[in-house]
């Protein structure tokens, strides 16, 4: 899947709220997600939630200060 994939599956409101709280409290998260078939696991600082083309993304900064956009329905844990 890629960012242009139209098969986005919305996440639950509870999970969305957890990401919002982590952003507000600047709480690092250890996430595991699917990036074009490759499973990535990293400790990240969530910065914002964004919506683009009816898909939601978590904007994060990784341990190397690189900014990433992770599609919410690609996050596994």
Which architecture of the domain at 28-74 would the CATH scheme give at its second level?
Roll
Tell me, briefly, the overall form.
Answer: globular
CATH topology of the domain at 28-74: Spermidine Synthase, Chain: A, domain 2
Classify the beta-strand content into a percent band. 35-45%
* Rg result: 12 Å
Structural class: alpha+beta
Distance between the termini: 18 Å
As a percent range, the share of helical residues equals 10-25%
CATH domain class name of the domain at 28-74: Mainly Beta
Largest sheet data: 4 strands, antiparallel
Q: What's a concise summary of this model?
A:
This protein has 77 residues and is an alpha+beta fold. 16% of the residues lie in helices and 44% in strands. Strand 1 and strand 2 form a beta hairpin.
Descriptive account of the structure:
By secondary structure, the protein is α+β, with helices and mostly antiparallel strands. Helix content is about 15%, strand content about 45%. The protein is built from one helix and four strands, in the order αββββ. The chain starts with 12 loop residues before the first helix and ends in a 6-residue tail after the last strand. The mean pLDDT is about 90.
What features would you highlight for this structure?
alpha+beta, four-stranded antiparallel sheet
Which secondary structure elements does this structure contain, and how are they paired or packed?
Elements (H helix, E strand, L loop, with lengths): L12 H12 L4 E7 L2 E15 L2 E7 L5 E5 L6
